[in-house]
Amino acid sequence: MNFKTSGIMSVVCCILLCSVIAFRSGLNHEVNDPELEKVVKDHLQYLLNDLLVDDVSDSVKSGKIDQQKVSALANGVEIKQISAQGPLLSFSFKEDVVLRVDYEVPLEEAAGLTIREYYKAYHYRPNSWVIRYRTNPISYYANIF
After folding, report:
1. Domain boundaries, the chain
2. Looking at the whole model, is its pTM more than 0.70?
3. Band of the pLDDT at 45, cuts 50, 70, 90?
């Protein structure tokens, strides 16, 4: 093998290695992972059913949140947006956008992001995905591996 051939092979190997590293670190935005989306939805369903509906009951009573929207959300029906007055509760759900709010992230910045884009932008941890929502003064976390 001459010097030119070994140089070309080195470059090709380097490109392949960089591609694998980028893919594994979550930098490839084209990756489609229905399994991950299902796990996210399942965890979120648990949080909504067992925690969230109780937490927003006062907001429902005061008319800040529509009861039908809360019930639909808890039952997994597609919801585009639920908002409460002030920062207590304000997030959107769609089929391809499971969670798009963090109280530390303005909704304008998170609007329209897919699950992966949102978590890459705000919650990415190597080999771990985090669902987070906060109801003052308590935070709930669900780690997804």
Report:
1. 1-30, 32-144
2. no
3. low
